[in-house]
Write a structure and sequence with these properties.
By secondary structure, the protein is an alpha+beta fold. It has two domains: 12-146, no CATH class; 180-320, Nucleoside Triphosphate Pyrophosphohydrolase (Alpha-Beta Complex). 22% of the residues lie in helices and 30% in strands. It is built from eight helices and 17 strands. Strands 1, 2, 3, 4, 5, 6, 7 and 8 form an eight-stranded mixed β-sheet that branches. It has a four-stranded mixed β-sheet with strand order 14-12-16-15, with helices on both faces. A three-stranded antiparallel β-sheet has the order 9-10-11, with no helix packed on it. A hairpin with a 2-residue loop joins strand 2 (41-46) and strand 3. Residues 1-6 have low confidence and may be disordered. The protein binds zinc ion. Zinc ion binds at residues 150, 152-153, 155, 168, 170-171, 173. Residues 150, 152-153, 155, 168, 170-171, 173 line the site of zinc ion.
């Protein structure tokens, strides 16, 4: 994994090493050309899961990309682009196509369900190329899965432009893959403590920083201030942008911020709807308690923001297996 300078976010899913090669998307025979190219490799996906390489029965932190003949049919194909660098198994400039498979097709490719892996568990260990490919592929597959009809007239739409457009035959309307922006915020107080919240629907002792979707017609800064007030009752100020990464569950973009509690803020109160508990943590308190807490997944921007504030990596109960 890339090492980032101190103070920067270590964003697992923001890594990428693929040229998206957007100009090729408009080639009318793109997939025919790709299928005739012996270098083309296929990232097979079934219910958001992909295959990883195995060596002597041990799973490796690398995507198992397939030759085109190994994937006879697909519900959806998307041209993801060309790899920038060589990997252990593929040369640089390898074209990669996402193939979303039906249950039957997935069984033909790999019948052992234990060999299909999801991004939450495998993402952190992957290379820049593979983390980027998996993230891009999952966001696109999830978007297509829920946007199969024209938004104007409801006619089933067809996939064009290498998988990057859906078009309605009836009124010619084109729909492009969307991503939903959400802000996520490290609120700190005058003592430089961080605010963590726990949602009612979570397991006991799962904590994270607060987040919410940007609403239509709203700036990112306004969304930070509104969402933090709604969830915590606190008035925050001076939102500082920290970084972003895709969050393909199903197709969000997480925009990380820090913000300070205003001197004139009312007292903290959990909204009781989304956030059940709120608590300030000093570095000493979080360091002492982390191993008993369920902190956000290592692939999340929430974890990266919390560790940036803390100053080093934390080991939570999620990783100790407790
Ligand atoms: Zn239509």
């Amino acid at each position: 994994m890339r090492h980032l300078p101190e103070g920067e976010l270590n964003l697992v899913l923001a890594r990428h090493a693929v040229d998206r090669d957007y100009l090729s998307r408009s080639r009318p025979d793109l997939f025919d050309e790709l299928w005739q190219n012996p270098l083309t490799r296929v990232l097979a996906m079934y219910e958001g899961q992909v295959l990883l390489l195995e060596t002597e029965g041990r799973v490796q932190p690398a995507l198992r990309l397939l030759e085109v003949d190994a994937v006879p049919s697909a519900q959806l194909r998307v041209y993801l682009g060309k790899s920038v660098d060589a990997s252990a198994n593929e040369p640089a400039q390898t074209p990669v196509v996402l193939a979303v498979l039906s249950k039957n097709a997935a069984d033909l490719v790999e019948p052992d369900s234990a060999k299909w892996h999801n991004l939450r568990k495998s993402g952190a260990g992957l290379s820049d190329r593979d983390a980027g490919l998996f993230t891009q592929a999952l966001a696109l597959a999830n978007w297509h899965d829920t946007h199969k009809h024209c938004p104007s007239c409801g006619t089933p739409s067809v996939v064009e432009q290498g998988g990057w457009v859906r078009r309605c035959f009836k009124d010619d309307q084109e729909t492009y893959p969307r991503t939903d922006p959400a802000i996520i915020v490290a609120i700190v107080d005058a003592q430089d403590r961080i605010l963590l919240g726990s949602q009612g629907v979570w397991e006991q002792n799962r904590w994270s920083i607060l987040a919410g979707f940007v609403e239509p017609g709203e700036s990112l800064g306004a969304a930070v201030i509104r969402e933090m007030f709604e969830e915590s009752g606190l008035v925050v100020e001076d939102p500082q942008y920290l970084g972003s990464q895709a969050w393909p569950f199903p197709y969000s973009l997480m925009l990380g911020f820090s913000a300070r509690v205003s001197d004139s803020s009312p007292s903290m109160v959990a909204d009781g709807i989304e956030i059940e508990k709120l608590r300030w943590f000093s570095r000493e308190e979080l360091g002492a308690a982390a191993h008993e807490m369920l902190l956000p997944n290592r692939i999340s921007i929430a974890r990266a923001i919390i560790e940036r504030w803390y100053g080093e990596k934390l080991v939570s109960a999620t990783e100790t297996g407790a």
